[in-house]
Amino acid sequence: MNIYVLLKKTFDTEERLDIIDGYIEEDDAEFIINPYDEYAIEEAIKQRDQHGGNVSVVTVGDDDSEKQLRTALAMGADNAFLINIEDDVEDGDQYTTAKILQTFFQDRSFDLILAGNVAIDEASGQVGPRLADLLDITYITTITKLDISGQTAHLEKDVEGDVEMIETNLPLLVTCQQGLNEPRYPSLPGIMKAKSKPLEELDIDDLDLDEEDVAPKTKTIHRFLPAEKTAGKILEGEISDQVKELVSQLKDAKKVL
Q1: 3.40.50.620, 3.40.50.150, 3.30.450.40, 3.20.20.70: which CATH number matches 2-214?
Q2: What is the pTM of this model?
Q3: Mean pLDDT, residues 236-240
Q4: Apex 119 CA angle, 115 and 123, nearest 5
């Protein structure tokens, strides 16, 4: 079984982030594998161990993205691909990433592509579905269970607190949700092996793409922090008086009634 995992480098939100004019200051920021992508890596390894085959991890990133790919290799992936767009694409969006990945996959054989449900930096959840649409394959988002028998996949999908059970055929792209598995930590032997596992670096010229081919379809015009939350108000007195005060606040002060 040929299994691919889409990986993205994201900010470590558990570390201090400095924001200047709406932009995160990257020089002092820590970067990690997008946490939802870790579920995809773990599931890919489990499916390979059960059915045989190969797990490849691919990212569209920059020179520093090799660190996250090596971490995925240390977790148990077999090989990795870095599509380095640092010198070729000045700006991009989800369309840019999906278009590059489409070209990467168009001459490759694959049975299963896994991705994180969302990335914690932009949280659009678009790249996986966009790629599946460009490749003209089935995709299922927010999965919490995956069983494969032959060319048939049985899945459970999270739907706003409920579960939808789906059966479909390979090839298939899925995006992975918390609850699918428990991602492993890289072991010391895994870290040592990762240093010698193949990691191939490509650029858009290698994919016969020009910058115009992957020009973004959207433009960010403004970034800003959310307004600071004000303290809540505790209503006191008899219940009837509290209800009257609540209605008054909602109607007169907040203008929501």
Answers
A1: 3.40.50.620
A2: 0.85
A3: 89
A4: 125
